[in-house]
Amino acid sequence: MAEHKSTNAAGAGHGSLLTYTTGFVLSVILTLGAYYFVVHDSFAHRELIAIIVGLAVAQLMVQLFFFLHLGKESKPRWNLIVFMFMLLVVAIVVIGSIWIMDNLDYNMMPEHQMDEKMMHERDKGF
Amino acid sequence: MSHIATTIKPMPHDSTNKTVFGFWVYLMTDLVLFATLFATYAVLHNNTFGGPSGKDIFDMPFVLTETMLLLTSSFTAGLAMLSVYKKKKSLALTFLVITFLLGATFLGMELYEFNHLVQEGHSWRESAFLSAFFTLVGTHGLHILSGLIWVSVLMGQLIKKGITVHTTRRLTLFSLFWHFLDIVWIFIFTIVYLMGVA
Questions:
Q1: Is A44 exposed, middle or buried (0-12, 13-18, 19+ CB in 10 A)?
Q2: Which of B182, B171, B169, B112 is nearest to B143 (CA)?
Q3: Torsion of CA A109, A112, A117, A120, to 10 degrees
Q4: Which residue among B17, B31, B180 places its CB closest to the CB of A10?
Q5: Which of A41, B60, B72, B97 has the most CB atoms at less than 10 Å from its CB?
Q6: Is the same domain home to A57 and A80?
Q7: Are residues A30 and A49 in the same domain?
Q8: Which residues contact B144 (CB under 8 A, 6 or more apart)?
Q9: Which residues in chain A are contacts of B39 at CB distance < 8 A?
């Protein structure tokens, strides 16, 4: 067992058959679960989207931990720090783009679509 | 004492650490590339310009098969690394061959899907949605292609040179790359395909 805990390149632990198998089985379950919910239309649209995004993020965590061994490296955890910084950049790029383009879409909407949108929002209770 | 020894003659292990960290930083910048393509897709996915939307063109059982193939190949790449660390050369080679075959099948299926769409008249020229779709999924496919070429070369090196510090380091980098591509695919599967038909 001791050799499994040894660290390899970049001070990252390189896992064992058990960690890889656990990661693989969990990933398969998460993938099939998301697929099942979508194909069988198990939830209302908004809940369904939230659930499959949640499952994808869970699988991201599983693979980062069991396949890439993130967080198991010895200190200082540069891999983890760089990863966290990248998450911040990715969040700014993705959320920022969607936000800005959504605003642009709204402000540049042709008049007839704008009327429809207003009606729609009024019906929703805005 | 050992401190002085390491400063004078850096151990190969130490340079491996730096190489792997450098490669990790590359992967993180590649993540930013994918993030921009995901953002583009998210912004444009409703702009179908009278053409088909995701619901009309995605074949879900087909995509699920692709996903499973890539996931399994990520797993076998991990098993190959375990064999390398245990110095079991032929076992490592077996797992690398399986990884290669699964990856090649995945890429073959993706090309089949692309070809099918283009034949049906739904190429990247039809709408902003399809442009964004082909760019995002195609960029991932190109990464897979380069991974397949890379692992072929590494298998040759493993046969010729055996398990050395250098081949181990290169295989470590490859396995990081391959796991990374599987993680990107999870999000393509979820955001493009599952959310496309949900």
A1: exposed
A2: B182
A3: -170
A4: B17
A5: B72
A6: no
A7: yes
A8: B70, B103, B106, B107, B110, B181
A9: 93-94, 96-98
Contacts of B25 in chain A (CB under 8 A): 82
Residue of A nearest to B62 (CA): A35
* CB-nearest partner of B78 from A12, A20, A79: A20
Q: What is the pLDDT of residues B28-45, one digit of tens each?
A: 999 999 999 999 999 999
- Residue of A5, A6, A8, A72 best to disrupt the B interface, most CBs of B under 10 A: A8
Q: Which domain holds residue A16?
A: 1-74
- How many domains is chain A built from? 2
Query: Which residue from B minimizes the CA distance to A69?
Result: B176
- The Cα–Cα gap between B85 and B56 comes to 47
In the listed set A56, A74, A92, which residue is the last one of a domain according to the structure? A74
| Residues B50-68 pLDDT 10s | 999 999 999 999 999 999 9
Task: Tell me which residue has tokens 């290169």.
Answer: B170
Tell me the C-alpha to C-alpha distance, in Å, between residue A94 and each of A52, B34, B41, B156, B192: 18, 10, 10, 40, 15
pLDDT computed for residue A26 by the predictor: 97
Are A69 and A98 part of one and the same domain? Answer: no
Tally of CA atoms within 13 A in the half-sphere of B3 that contains its CB: 1
| Residue segments in chain B with a per-residue pLDDT below the cut of 70 | 1-13
Q: Which two tokens stand for residue A115?
A: 């009327």
Main-chain phi, psi angles of A13, to 5 degrees: -70, 145
Contact of A101 with chain B, judged by CB distance below 8 Å, is answered with yes
| pLDDT band at residue A6 using 50, 70 and 90 as cut-offs | very low
User: Are A8 and B79 in contact (CB < 8 Å)?
Assistant: no
Among the four given CATH numbers 1.20.120.80, 3.40.50.12780, 3.40.50.10490, 1.10.357.10, the one describing domain B12-197: 1.20.120.80
Model confidence at A115, in pLDDT bands (50, 70, 90)? Answer: confident
Q: Which of A17, A35, A77 is the best substitution to test chain B (most B C-beta atoms within 10 A)? A: A35
